[in-house]
Protein 1
Amino acid sequence: MSSVANVALMQSVVEIEQHVAADGWNQRPRMFALVPTAELLVTQPRMAAALGLTDEAGPSGGIPTFTSIEQDGLALDQPLDEMLGKMVWPAAVEGCALVIETQMLPPSAEAQIPRELEGAALERWVAKHPERQDVRMAVGVLRDGTRQAAIRLRSKDSDMEVLSGPDLVPNLATALLETFEE
């Protein structure tokens, strides 16, 4: 994993989270393909133009390293792991990012979780817990294993309060990386 890829992915994940945040809360999961911008300019000039990308900025800046392309038609009527298990990316896609909303408990509340609860029953229990936090997680990965995440708490709904880092949502990052395995 190069530091350039790490920085480029972090920039993309933060931009995607901010894009989704502009639409407010209570959204469905949203998936984005990450395509190298320079390659998109060469191989898909009409798409690049439609996205407002030009090569006028030059290599010194202005062109993001990755262009995110939202994927429509996700099978949202199935569990996330099943949906991800069916995903296949073309070779031109260098990475992907998924944005989902969920509820989390602080570590201090995890000891209160009844052991017999699973699935929907556990989700209902968490939803009623007074310490629960609504969160939006944007997790991005590249084929080479680079991973980044951005997390926004509903209680601190500000771009300045978004947490970011490579190890914030490791299980989801691993699941996204598996969409690139053949």
Protein 2
Amino acid sequence: MKQLLVVASVIGLLACSPQGVAQNDSSSFKRQHLERMGFVIESVNDSVIDGVYEVITDQGLVYVTADGETLIGGRLYDITGSEPQNLSEASIREMRRSDIAKVSDEAILYPAENEKYMITVFTDPTCGYCRQLHTNLEQYHKLGISVRYLAWPRSGLQGSAYQQLKTVWCSEDQQAALDAAKNDKRLPAASCDDPVDEHFALGNKFGVRGTPAIVLPSGEMLPGLVPAERLLSMMQNGQ
């Protein structure tokens, strides 16, 4: 309810603001309050509201007043048309695309022979829907959809899924290890400087709340299992 009230407040502000991008001076933005709260600031850009900045942090997108003293959660919507338009989504998608590119060499890739699209999937070997997606990889591959996996243990940085994922990413044959983990087969011991914690933090930043979470080439994120045909249709339509 609190988040809805915040979003409603933001919509009200936007409805009263002039159209176009406000010109703020981000060099004067005061960071200390956000940093004191534990946010790591990655970028500060103008928002459509005069005196409010769009701030990308390690915890996702937030809006902050120019004096750095007021944080606004939620999303901005343009409500001038027949349907509300989510103005925050473009920035969020760009953030996801950029961040995924940085960790693409850490993903476990299952490529399609005639690749047309690449999706990124946050996965957990103990998740039934993740197993179902993995079992049906051939359906995605036939449609030219390559799948690359990042780790996201649903129980957090503890428990069996977390340990399995660490072992998978440290295995000499990562594909074989992930296949085994998703079929309840015992994994040979393996340890290394794995990226599981990093992937988990990235998923949290993106807004992952469960697995599988599918990130499309556009940066849009879909929660849950999505059949191959529907997924292809969405990407063909530019989502």
Protein 3
Amino acid sequence: MTQLIPSTRQLILVTGATRSGKSQWAETLAQKLNKPVIYVATALENPDDPEWQSRIAQHQKRRPPDWETHCIPYDLSAILDSIKSPHCLLIDSLGTWVANSLEQDNDTWKEITDQLLENLQKTPLDIIMVAEETGWGVVPAYPLGRTFRDRLGSLIRQIGAIANPVYLVTGGHALNLSLIGELLP
């Protein structure tokens, strides 16, 4: 049985649309914790895609120089086991992490996410996770797009059930859903 960590640490979920400011809000929250920050980047660099490299560079420029950065495109569970308190992990982003593992079959994906959820509940670290909202528009016309949308939506809901607070960033505002919403059963 997983032993739940004491309530003195925080698991924070920041979700929202593209370019809504969710990463900046997560960075602000990390700075407010007054702990050493380890920024976990899930993006894979692609020198053949200058626009993608520009997005990565924008994120890098905003980070304070004393933040440690780890590029973890696949095994998020491993870093949860390897870092000790008093650090804060800022994981940006779950959508990119899900996209990196789309080739996994459903059983393997379930094992990966079950391990992540278990480690999130037992780690003593403060963790801030950034996730993109999907599924608020048209159903993707291709199977891989639907798999991505379904996997990310399900993961956000599962993490949202154990995180507190959960923020929705939209229109340049951060809404604390833990204060104004109710957790679904």
